[in-house]
Structures are given as structure tokens and as C-alpha cells.
Design a protein that fits this description.
A hairpin with a 4-residue loop joins strand 6 (90-93) and strand 7. By secondary structure, this protein is α+β, with helices and mostly antiparallel strands. It has a nine-stranded antiparallel β-sheet. The chain is 26% helix and 37% strand. It is globular, with a radius of gyration of 14 Å.
């Protein structure tokens, strides 16, 4: 198990709202991001394609009413940040840090510092190469 990030919201995220937020028919941002919700209402996953492969970005659980991801690359982290914005949430790490997109830059905000990962569009274009590579 890797480092877990979760999408947090003040109001719990219901499955119907999640599906609507990711629908290309109702959200131009979702259409551009290319997310797809797979699985059942009780447990599913949000996936996105890159090249010929499909990559899991987050898992969904009705019992927890939230999305959780374990990114293995800057690309997956960026996808999670985009996903959290689409559903009106914020992306939080196990240690309380917040990951967000500000002025097109993916960043992590901790208790006393800000770490910039880079330009969102460049990270997304680079694809899902693993941090271990």
C-alpha cells in the first residue's frame, strides 16, 4: 500500500453527484479531463486513458462517500488534483498536506511551506511514468 490521498469535502460526495461531475455531457471540464467511472454504486474506480492504457486514479466507496488514490507518479497526482476540483473537494494527504492547482501549477501546501511540482499541462502531457523509474 502506498501513500494515500483523499478527496475531502464539507458535504459527503454521493455516487449520483460523482457520476454527474464526471459526465462529459454535463461538464466540459470532465470531458476535457477524460475521466470515466467504472464499477458499482457501492464500490468503483475513476479511470483515465493515456495512450493505449487505462489508469486507475481513485477508488470510490459508498460506505465512506469519498474518493481515495495512491499516486505513483506526478501524472497520477495531477489527475487526482483535477478530479478533486471537478467534484468540489480538496486533495489531502495522510499528514495533512493539501495538493492543489494554483495558476496552472500543481503544488503541495504543508504547515510552513509550498512545494511546486510544475505546470499542470506539462505534467499531464508527460504521462504516467512512475516515481521509481
Amino acid at each position: 500500500m502506498g501513500y494515500e490521498l483523499r478527496v475531502e469535502r464539507e458535504i459527503p460526495l454521493g455516487y449520483t453527484e460523482l457520476a454527474r461531475s464526471l459526465s462529459a455531457e454535463t461538464s466540459p471540464e470532465a470531458a476535457e479531463a477524460g475521466f470515466e467511472l467504472r464499477g458499482l454504486r457501492e464500490a468503483g474506480e475513476v479511470v483515465v486513458r493515456f495512450g493505449d492504457a487505462t489508469h486507475t486514479i481513485a477508488t470510490w466507496s459508498t460506505s465512506a462517500c469519498r474518493l481515495v488514490g495512491e499516486p505513483a507518479s506526478d501524472w497520477q497526482l495531477a489527475q487526482l488534483a483535477v478530479l478533486s476540483e471537478l467534484v468540489g473537494g480538496r486533495l489531502a494527504g495522510e499528514d495533512g498536506e493539501i495538493y492543489s492547482i494554483r495558476d496552472g501549477i500543481l503544488e503541495q501546501t504543508g504547515s510552513a511551506s509550498v512545494l511546486e511540482f510544475g505546470k499542470l499541462e506539462e505534467i499531464l502531457a508527460a504521462g504516467p511514468s512512475s516515481w521509481s523509474e
